[in-house]
Amino acid sequence: MIRSDHDVLIIGGGVAGLALALELAEHRPVTLLRPAQDDIGASRWAQGGIAAVLAPHDTTEDHVQDTLIAGDGLCDEAAVRFTVENGRAAIDWLVALGVPFTPDVTPDAPYPFHLTREGGHGARRIIHAADATGLALIDTLIEHARRHPAIELVNDLQAIELLRDHNGNCRGALCLDTADRPHMLAARDTILATGGASGLYRHTTSPAPACGEGMAMAAALGATLKNLEFQQFHPTCLYDPSGNPFLISEAVRGEGGILRDAQGRRFMPDYDTRAELAPRDIVARAIHAEMLRAGSPHVLLDVTHLEPAAVREHFPTIHAHCLTRGLDITRQPIPVVPAAHYSCGGIATDHCGASDVAHLYAIGEVAYTGLHGANRMASNSLLECLVYARGAAQALHAPLDENHAEPLTPEFATTPASQPGVADDEIAKALAALRRIMSDSVGIVRSDVGLAAGSEALRRLHIESAPLWLHNAPTLALARLRHALQLAELLIAAAHARRESRGLHFNRDCPDHAEGQAKPSVSHLTLRR
């Protein structure tokens, strides 16, 4: 096994990981694991923008209250205020780096950059780079990271297990290279920025969604996970069974897009007075209900009543992409369907991104900060990435201690290869089965019977799959499957334990809020071989 030593190890190269690396590299050397698929991860596909109090007419208190309302009673108000209050500084930092945000060229514009509005927000406060904000962020941040002498970008290693010492502290990660050879990267401090768990579902808004690998690795080390049952389904993913997933931004509705059923009837006013601008959980359930009522595989998002030039100006990426699918959105409504999009739960952290395992931090979608509660409000996710990355950098300016114990031999490294290598299609088949179970039993609308059936199906799948990793040398695909199974079982257990409906979690057998349930759920991993 190849061994190397590092000061700060960041696992994940989306917006959160890159922002932390850039902020921290002025003080400590950083090793950033950024495998190739990070180029098509969730950050790059973010379209809408970043929510922040930027315009003179907007206020911190308004943004805080909008977020608390969207979170349906489960937000940590201190986390919400911390995030919102630090939003302007994070945006100013991005502007200074040269992120090409869309300017506001109207006469007497209250802010130099165009601000749009999205569901749940009471004001225009979403700064964006046309409709490809994530791409603009990644391109800018990665260019700065490549030029920084204190940042080492590593694109041929992926973490499969966190290392611990005899005190239980995190000491880096076991990684595999592209040939599945093990590398032990010991580190003083380790930060997970690995994304969420949307890849546990059949339909997602990203072509390369994470399956909760970072959450599972942290839980195996003893870290606390919270609110796993709150998986957000974005209301509007382009419906095209033959093509790759493609998100239709919340901003399309913010700029006047109307949701219609298969017969062309507008239906959102039947469900909420805010209509298309209701929070995502409400819109996703409304679409789900309309699809069931009509027996239709999708609904329609209509912008044909808007000025075509404005549609092309505000949504050039969406317009161009839909054209490649044979759809001119200025003339035809867009077929859309809800899809797994964002994990509101994750590794429990403080305002500095620290978990309850010493020297292990988590930022971005992999973390639970308390900001999102039972439902994430649109464009608060990139804000969270930036604010908590900068907060973690402040906390990590200097090592907490100079003396640290050696990492123990990682579990995966001791797996005997008693059988010939497992075929990739066997692993893919098991992962596909997991995604079917999760989509059928713990999707947008849940029930006790469905959750129980899903739990039993996952148990059987785990037993059937265990020989794959017990008797074969570790591979990236095997590690991904094992992590996905572990996290899926935790998620479905958390959903079954919440005896109410709140935010993104809706159970037909307990459809109302329950007294005493407005608190985060807590999950710990009991390792099953």
Automatic annotation (TrEMBL):
Its cofactor is FAD. InterPro entries: FAD-dep_OxRdtase_2_FAD-bd, FAD/NAD-bd_sf, Fum_R/Succ_DH_flav-like_C_sf, Fum_Rdtase/Succ_DH_flav-like_C, NadB, Succ_DH/fumarate_Rdtase_cat_sf. Pathway: Cofactor biosynthesis; NAD(+) biosynthesis; iminoaspartate from L-aspartate (oxidase route): step 1/1. The keyword Cytoplasm does not apply. Its main location: cytoplasm. GO terms for biological process: 'de novo' NAD+ biosynthetic process from L-aspartate. This is L-aspartate oxidase. It comes from Modicisalibacter muralis.
